[in-house]
Write a structure and sequence with these properties.
single chain, about 120 residues, mainly alpha, 7 helices, about 70% helix, globular
Length: about 120
């Protein structure tokens, strides 16, 4: 996937840490839900306004390590979900952590699908 779509994603999200994403994928694999998010990031790369791809990629990293990527994900979502206040986005992410995190501290992308849907359908 990264070999085929990596250049597209790097253009769409130039400030995103792709090395971190690839390390996560190598260490823990990519399930179907994460793959959907990655494909959405590729699809969003065609947007005239930047941000949607980065937000989808940040959700993938947030699912893997919410403590490490909380702020990054919150900021990426804020860029796209312009009708939401920063505190609303923070609360939304924290609720996912509180209700969905497993014993390893991971939040499944399946549990983040409602946020991903908002990212992909939010008018830019």
């Amino acid at each position: 996937f990264f070999g085929t779509c990596g250049d597209i994603l790097k253009q769409a999200a130039p400030d995103f840490d792709f090395d971190e994403l690839q390390r996560e994928a190598a260490a823990n694999g990519i399930g179907l839900a994460k793959m959907r998010f990655l494909v959405n990031a590729v699809v969003a790369s065609g947007d005239a306004q930047p941000g949607r791809s980065t937000a989808m990629l940040c959700l993938v990293l947030f699912s893997a390590d919410h403590e490490k990527h909380f702020e990054q994900c919150q900021e990426a979502l804020r860029v796209v979900l312009k009708r939401c206040q920063a505190e609303t986005i923070r609360t939304m992410l924290q609720e996912k952590v509180d209700t969905c995190a497993d014993s390893n501290g991971r939040v499944s992308c399946m549990d983040l699908q409602d946020i991903a849907k908002r990212v992909m359908t939010e008018p830019m």
